[in-house]
Amino acid sequence: MSVRTAALPLLALLAFAGASHAQDTLFMSDTAGSIRTGRVRGCDAGFVKLEIPLKGASAVATVTVPLAEIAQIEFAPDEARDRLLENASAATLPQIAALFRKWEPFLGLAKSPAGKAGNVYAGLLLKSGESEKARQALELFSRIEKDGWSDDDRLAARQGRLRAMVATGNAAGAVGEAAELAKESEDPEILIEAKFILAEVVQAQLKKLVEDNPRWYEDALIRPEYHRLANEALDLYLYPYLFYGSETDAAARGLWGAITIYEFVGDRHNALESARDITALYKETRYAKLAGDYIAGLPEATQQQDNEKEAQDEAEPNPS
After folding, report:
1. 188-212 and 171-184 are packed helices; what angle lies between their axes, rounded to 10 degrees?
2. Phi, psi values for residue 28, rounded to 5°
3. How many domains does the chain have?
4. Most CB contacts within 10 A, which of 34, 70, 132, 235?
5. How many angstroms separate the CA atoms of 8 and 17, rounded?
6. Are residues 306 and 193 in the same domain?
7. How far apart are CA 201 and CA 205, in angstroms?
8. Taking a C-beta distance cutoff of 8 angstroms, is the pair 98, 88 a contact?
9. The domain that contains 39 carries what CATH number?
10. For residue 262, how far is the Cα from the chain centroid?
11. Both 145 and 84 in a single domain?
12. For the segment 60-97, what is each residue's pLDDT rounded down to a tens digit?
């Protein structure tokens, strides 16, 4: 062994030796600072289940290690798990739920994927549109925000919690927090998310205003508030499209939100143009199909309208 190789840290040598087996590394809290390697398969009643290969055989054995005796776990990369989380959808909800249940006991343990898995799981619950699942999402987001080990996971959970508050009928409670979140950060991703949450809140307020005042257009005191809420919701939804158009999913999501407002206020022309923007600029997002279906469901005469072309024609000088 060369001097250079001998100088490599023990962890690096372990990584070289076990790279092909994608092993997890347990750093024990004993005075010797011992290390155990294997594949973590879960945690139950305070014990980590560690799968270790048997020497000279293709079989493996599962041992239990007290969680209290572990200082840190260095989890090996898992491409299959990462793909599952990145491509999460309603169809994969059962797998995501099972994945989170496996990692849930490690939520507060550094380097574990529990927080990310939990946020993805809660996000799918929220997207279902079912009130009970929205309540479950709120509870899960709240727990990750409180107990997650990662700052990024806790921030994502906070944003999810605010969306879940809106979905469970507590828009008033979410609006103050979302406004504060937008003020205290210059991170575009956080700003976009905060403004989207605010847009959802304002949309809920607009719908409630009309529900309480079905003849709002005849009330001189209500009309200004109706228009203010509609314009504010549009400004908030369109924020990523106007200022961060390269953030494709956020911009398309905002445009789709704007379509819901345009439809609600009876402005089908702008709704159509927004849908066309999604299908032209953000065809790789899931909102492209929603926009395409929306356009296809419009009356034939409406589909033939081209506001942009009409505006250009009006701007051209009349040759006569």
Report:
1. 150
2. -80, 155
3. 3
4. 70
5. 13
6. yes
7. 6
8. no
9. 2.30.30.100
10. 25
11. yes
12. 899 999 988 988 889 888 899 999 999 999 999 999 99
